[in-house]
Description:
259 residues, mainly alpha, 9 helices, 0% strand, elongated, disordered N terminus
Amino acid sequence: MKISNSIPLAAFDLGTYLNIGYTSYQIYHMGGAMFCGIFGLLALRRITKVGGISVAIWGSFSVILLLLSCYIARRGFAEQFPEWLLPLVSDANLLRCGAIANLLVWAFFLIHAHWVDGMAAKWGYRSLGVGAVFIAIWLTVGWFQPQVPERVRPWTARTVLVKFFAVSALIIMAYSVWHANRRSHVGVVWVCRAFGTACVGGAIALSWHWFGSLTPPVAYRIVNNERILILTGIATACCLLIALGATWIVKQNTKSENE
């Protein structure tokens, strides 16, 4: 069988026939990469039209298609890729990028938690989302440590990441308890805010203990953990006093209404 009178099918090259500078092998891979990339972008666009767990499912599907597009493009155009980019798009690194991207997609889904009723359930899911972000960063640092610039590398050590995560967790907890139970008794609200104040003070104290040496010497001499803890104790005590005073006022108003 022949395509024309002079070109046998076995020797036929679509790129040469079309005279576009690519071989049939490259054209086929280009088509596959474009197919996966377009459908990956459509899946990403679909996220804006769905709700609930479908957001995470479509996001993961989009990530898989986009990474598959990168894999097909690398297979077809390996010679055109820059030398510095080839290690990043190897088979192992593409799988790692897929795992990290999927973790971030699910973290985004959990942190929003707009589909959950109840404050406790929302903050439970948000805590899981923050944990997923931390795992993604942890894996990224472990897998791509050689590609991290020398100046940034000390800040991406896993011990430093654990410290950042501990401080971030305290701040998130403080924010959650400060805004929780707004419809509850005013005394309960201020007790929660006292706990949030203590969390903020703990986060500041840990930050200063771990990273205070990076500040100017004048600031390092003026600020210390003892003063931070004293101020935290005063602020927490003020919140507790407000809670006691509000509870007493509510009881007195209740008595006067009953009389």
